[in-house]
Amino acid sequence: MELQQLAAADRDPKPQGWRLSPRAVRRFILGDKAIPVSQKFFGDDALVDRCIVSLMGQQGLMLVGEPGTAKSLLSELLAAAISNDSSLVVQGSAGVIEDHLRYGWNYALLLAEGPSERALVPSPVLTGMRHGKVVRVEELTRCAPEVQDAMISLLSEKTIAIPELGPGAETRAIPGFNVIATANLRDRGVHEMSSALKRRFNFETVRPIADAAFERELVAKQVAERMADHAVKPAVNDDVLELVVTVFRDLRTGVTSEGASVAQPNSVMSTAEAVNVAHAAVLDAAYLDVGGVSGEHIARQIRGVVFKDDPEDARKFRAYLDHIAKARAKRSKVWSAFHAAAKKELE
Amino acid sequence: MTEADVLAAVGKSLNVAAKGLFVAPIRHHSPACAWAVRAMIRELRPKHVLVEAPIDFASHVELIAHPDTRPPVAIAALVEDRGEQRVSAYYPFSVHAPEYVALVEARAVGAAVRLIDLPAAATVKRRSKSADAPLGLTDEHVFDSGDYVSALCKRTGCRDGFELWDHLFETRLGLADWRGFFADVGAYCAGLRASTAPAQIERDGDAAREAHMGACVLEALADGGDIVVIVGGFHAPALLDIVHSGAGHKPAAEGNEARSFLIRYGFAALDALSGYAAGLPQPAYYDFLWQRANESTGEPVWRRTGLDLVSAFAGAMREAGHAISVPEQVEMVRAAETLAILRGRPGPMRHDLIDAARTALVKGELVAQDIWTERLIVFLRGNALGDVPASAGSPPLVEDARAAARRHRIELGDGARRRRRLDIRRNKKHLAASRYFHAMRLLETAFAELEAGPDFINNVRTDLLFEEWSYAWSPRVEGRLIELAAQADRVAPACLRVLETRREQLRAAGQSRDVAAMTTLFAQGLLSGLGADLAPFLRGLCDDVQAHADFAAVAAALRRLFYIARSRGPLGAHELDVAEATRIAYARLVYLCDDLPGTPAEAVGPRIDALRLTTELLRNDEDAVLDPSLFAEAVDRVVDAGAPAEIVGAALAIAVLGERRDPRELRAALEGQFAGAVTRAEDRVGMLRGMLGAAPQLLLQSADVVAAIDAFLAGLDEDKFFEVLPHIRLAFTALNPREVDQLADRLASLHSVSATVFAGIHHSLDEHALARGLAIEQRLRSSIAADGLATWIASETEV
Fold first, then answer.
1. pTM of the entire predicted model
2. Cα separation of B103 and B60, whole Å?
């Protein structure tokens, strides 16, 4: 819907193969009240600019950052805005082989007819090249090094040769093709990227959302979306949302807004987890309780969703409750409910 | 009327044409504003040009506009603070500062210049919370914060007030329409002003400044003729209100005249982010834009400017050993240009370049600030230094320091940090340069740092031949010299003054007797090449030594002076009679020897050390500067005076060593104490401790002494032995490992065993565990013996 509106209003010049102009892409992602288009990515406008500019060039775009910083969301938004199609995606894993990046065969047809265009099963990358679209490769560093190596030639030649179809048979990318990869460089169990591959990408680090108000907005919106199909919709007050976001921010950054330092747990305290907690709390309030969502519901969910099985994390969380939450509980009802319930959960 | 109309009206009201008044709202160091100011003055040819700068800086106007002045320069104001003249404020001018351009152009069109802000001292006193950091007089934090700025940033997609300013105004650099430009800046600043709380304006003291400026404008208006007012945009709306209402207020001059100097300033100091909050950050970038606009006499060729900046950056990085490959440069230029187009700018601005560097050069995940962005920012900051004409009347001290630097071939052309290696022992010129560096260090100018080399002050690695210095001339150096300028006009007297001041401080702190610290100061003075000039200081030092009452402190000073007198190197002082000072200290020491018998317990340790060090010193005195017999006689007197056991032990040992006394006497004294009636175990070995502290070598030289100790230890029963063991251990720590080995051999031969029998045994037990174990064993043995079972263990011990 928004894409159509944007396309209709788009007067700016478009790079070859792009469905929208770069400025319209920016508006799609960062929002524009005039059209109106909602803001879908929060936090770092310059980052979005740089991503768009990278995709206009020869280099691929590599989004890196901690888990849960909306890298995949951003890559989907970019692909949707630029190519009007975010479905061309290769999900990186140890099981990915080169065929997933190039092409495979429908073996029944291959045996019956021999190599032919009909028997060819194109990869998302090949499809993207043929139609001039942005292709997404998720979790590139999870792929084996030889598969990553295949990316190098794809990105530099922008051509896939298909020798089975005859000498000289190859697909050359038409303008509009590019690759957005996401990767997690700090996770365990990933493969180091070769510097040759690194050279073919422009890197962008997506950081956790810096602005607390934005984060709250985002959590509220995502929870509302998830609750859209439910019949019961308990009220989520602003102060409850505030509490979720504050707890997550305090533990993520290791510093409270007042400047007190907090021991950071090993668990990922990303916005995505905050949404999960808030969502679970809403469900709890909706189906197992009466009334609106309170600090108590949050406290009941936070343990299960975030602090999985690390006793060290439980210790840090207890310290947080004792030193930070307790002080706040004296001033706020929501915090007081949160503190009491969370302490009980920890026993 | 909408808000936009209101703002537009404010913009237009800047020109009160009926009165011939033109207000130019500016941002400090903005090239676009400077360009418009120049166009404005050239077109209007006003009778008066009024500039927002402290009124008491008026005497510098001529000099700033002088053709030989090469910005960045600054006016440094000295304000009285806690009884000291300190550089408390800087008012910097860059070549692209609207104020500077206004002064130059005013001179060109023959306009009268007036500075209209409150005196610097008034601003400093009101604004600075702590007087420790100098204040920038061009503070404009309002441009970078506030609701209005954030709302506009959101609207335009800029990340902060700096990018917003560039986006809205610097992109208009070189355009001829100054009226339109100032109308927009005025509207922008009116917005800023309207969204700033009146309380904050009051708190910042802006109201008083604006009243003063308004009064000055009214005065000029009364004079008739066209008037151009160059004023920080934030103040423009208030200033216009005052002009319209005619209610300016000029406070009476409160004797607020600050002494001030025009000094060389540097880009690094100009950078808003590096301290003094003066306008736009990264001045080398804006300087480059200004040059380009001047070259094309209009809009800079933006694309070309971006390209040249990237190439220059790549060149600088290549020189620094961080080459950027050509494809990376291409990508950086492409990204910068595309970002500029995307953001609707005529060419890559500062943030586009920084973004482009991040896109093209950074590979991998950013942890904090990445190295490439940092390098680009340093590059855009630049390190150029300005220059002032010879007639600027820098204080003579500054000129002397610069002239000396030139003499020593020390590069002062820019603010970059350089290194210099000096061969201080073989090369006279290098030694002179080293003395200059030391002098500047003594003056606390932060000009030079000694990175490696001999440390004569603390007597560390004094055998090294080379000194390695790093140095950089910065406005801070000049500021510090200006502070000292009131006290001296050349470097050497300034150093003397600093030494005197420190000595007075020591006196005031009740440490006038700290002769060790004084000799350190003296050594610093020598390193700084003060030479003969130190004679009065040395005399003062001698007086202090002569009046000093502590044996150990005088010994330390003596030692210091003795080695300085012998030094032929950088510490050398042929012009001074340090030998005489040494003799004076020695005489005092000998005199103080007679106090040794009354040594209080806590001073025993240091005094024994002092005795040993003095003995060694006399042994090293090949030139016979000092008469050793004086000391020997004095020590001899101590032996007979009945001092604390340690002191007697030490004195006796020294006397034996000097062959004034018989070793048997020492043996007798030791045995006497070993066998004496004492209440505490440690007293039993006091004499031994003193002896070992002062002359450990006696153990190896004198068989008598060893025999005495051996006999004493052999004669102890086990209870007693454990009692004195810790004290004996403590006493023997005076020996070094080699001496311990030699002693072990000697004792072993005395008992006809080999020392290696013991050497091979190492226990992982600590001292306490061992003592406890031995005690338990002892109790066990006595218990067994008490039970009449001594024979059980006797056979074992007999073997």
1. 0.69
2. 11
- In this structure, what token pair is assigned to residue A86? 């975010």
* B364/A199 CB distance under 8 A: no
Q: What is the largest CA-CA distance in chain B?
A: 128
d(CA B123, CA B144): 21
With a cut of 80, say whether residue B249 has pLDDT above it: no
A195 shares contact with chain B (CB less than 8 Å): yes
Considering only CB atoms, B355 lies closest to which of A30, A50, A56, namely A50
Q: Which of these, A152, A150, A243, A137, lies nearest to A198 by C-alpha position?
A: A152
Q: Do the Cβ atoms of B241 and B451 come closer than 8 Å?
A: no
Q: Is the confidence at residue B799, as pLDDT, over 50?
A: no
Q: Which of A49, A202, A205 sits opposite B366 (nearest CB)?
A: A205
Separation in Å, CA of B178 to nearest CA in chain A: 30
Interface contacts A/B by beta carbons within 8 Å: 61
- Partners of B733 in beta bridges: none
Let me know how long chain B is.
799
- 3-state class (DSSP) for residue B273: helix
One-letter amino acid of B222: A
User: Residue B12: pLDDT band by 50, 70, 90 thresholds?
Assistant: low
Half-sphere exposure for B583 (CA within 13 Å, toward CB): 9
**ipTM of the complex model:** 0.78
Give yes or no for residue B1 having a pLDDT over 60: no
Q: Give CA–CA dist B323/B319, Å, rounded.
A: 8
What region does B252 belong to: left with phi over 0, alpha with psi -120 to 50, or beta? beta
For residues B223 and B228, what is the distance between their CA atoms, to the nearest angstrom? 13
**Gap from A245 CA to chain B (nearest CA, Å):** 23
Cα–Cα distance for residue pair A1/A9, rounded to 1 Å: 13
Name the pairing type of β-strands B73-81 and B84-93.
antiparallel
Peptide bond into B454 cis (omega under 30): no
C-alpha B501 chain-centroid distance? 18
Q: Which residues of B touch A54 (CB under 8 A)?
A: 335, 359
Rounded to the nearest angstrom, the minimum Cα separation between A136 and chain B is: 18
Pair A139, A146: CB distance under 8 Å: no
CB-count burial class (<10 Å; 0-12, 13-18, 19+) for A247? buried
Three-class secondary structure of residue B735 per DSSP: coil
Amino acid identity, position B30: S
Using the beta-carbon criterion (under 8 Å), do A203 and B363 form an inter-chain contact? yes
**Are B364 and A52 inside 8 Å of each other by CB?**
no
- Asked if residue A108 has pLDDT above 90, the reply is yes
Q: Which of A22, A65, A202 is closest, CB to CB, to B342?
A: A22
Per the rule left: phi > 0, alpha: psi between -120 and 50, beta: everything else, B480 is alpha
Q: Do A57 and B338 touch (CB under 8 A)?
A: yes
Give burial (CB, 10 Å; 0-12/13-18/19+) of B641: middle
Instruction: Say yes or no for a CB contact (<8 Å) between A59 and B338.
Output: no
Mean pLDDT over A142-151 rounds to 89
Residue B650 amino acid letter: A
In this complex, do B364 and A185 lie within 8 Å of one another by their Cβ atoms?
yes
Query: CB of B363 within 8 Å of any CB in chain A?
Result: yes
Q: Give B 156-185 residues with CB within 8 A of chain A.
A: 157, 159
C-alpha torsion sign, points A161, A162, A164, A166: negative
Enumerate residues 6+ apart whose C-beta is below 8 A from A185. A64, A141, A193, B364, B365
Task: Look at residues B108, B106, B99, B102 and name the one whose alpha carbon lies nearest to residue B46.
Answer: B106
Give contacts of A81 with chain B, Cβ < 8 Å: none
Q: Which of B327, B338, B366 sits opposite A53 (nearest CB)?
A: B338
